[in-house]
Specification:
The chain has a six-stranded mixed β-sheet with strand order 4-3-7-6-5-8. It has a single domain, classed as 2-Layer Sandwich (Beta-Lactamase). By secondary structure, the chain is α+β, with helices and mostly antiparallel strands. The protein is about 15% helix and about 25% strand. Strand 5 and strand 6 form a beta hairpin. The chain starts with a helix and ends with a strand. The longest helix is centred in the first third of the chain and has 8 residues.
């Protein structure tokens, strides 16, 4: 399989693969996430396309990575940060609540307007794999994959996240009781039971 061989040879360099095959970033990421044929397996990747509001528009996964089904995804996930600088690839070591770590790549793209007054569309693409495969990916170069200080503790979404001390929590989890302290002020205005 030509694409799989090129992916291995380029160490999964998204731009290089796009140039080789005349494909967009979205096409390259989606294809990488589907390379799971018997005898021709690539790295098991997840792929996600997100709009600026955090809604998951497209997803595909060959991993255990969980996507938010309702509402926005975790605000600490680099796919949201990608909107701050379109065209730049953001690399993150992310850990889910179950302890599984992922090398997560994210990049925002702007889709051109169809005509002068048409709105410009912006999306972010996320691509990731379990950390055990990170050495096979060019984007892991220069990152200490074992240092806990480099790990972003993310969740699926605030409504089901079990992390109590998240400074970006938008809403309390549905399975916990909240307490609102009246004698102190914090970043998140409530405590979890």
């Amino acid at each position: 399989m030509r694409f799989l061989a090129a992916a291995k040879e380029t160490r999964h360099d998204l731009d290089w693969l796009g140039r080789i095959f005349g494909a967009s970033l979205e096409q390259v990421c989606h294809r990488l996430s589907t390379l799971q044929r018997a005898g021709q397996r690539g790295i098991p990747f997840y792929f996600v396309k997100v709009d600026r509001a955090g809604n998951v528009i497209k997803r595909h996964s060959a991993t255990r990575f969980q996507f938010a089904r309702f509402g926005g995804a975790c605000p600490l996930w680099n796919v949201h940060e990608a909107f701050e600088q379109a065209g730049r690839t953001f690399v993150q070591v992310a850990e889910m609540p179950d302890g599984t770590r992922y090398l997560s790549l994210a990049r925002a793209v702007t889709k051109g307007a169809a005509h002068w007054r048409a709105p410009v569309r912006r999306y972010a693409f996320g691509l990731g794999c379990e950390i055990s495969y990170a050495g096979e990916i060019v984007y892991s170069e220069g990152i200490d994959l074992k240092a806990d200080a480099n790990v972003a503790k993310i969740g699926v979404s605030c409504r089901i996240c079990e992390r109590a001390n998240c400074h970006q929590r938008a809403v309390p989890p549905i399975d916990r009781e909240i307490r609102v302290p009246t004698d102190r002020r914090k970043v998140v205005p409530f405590d979890l039971s």
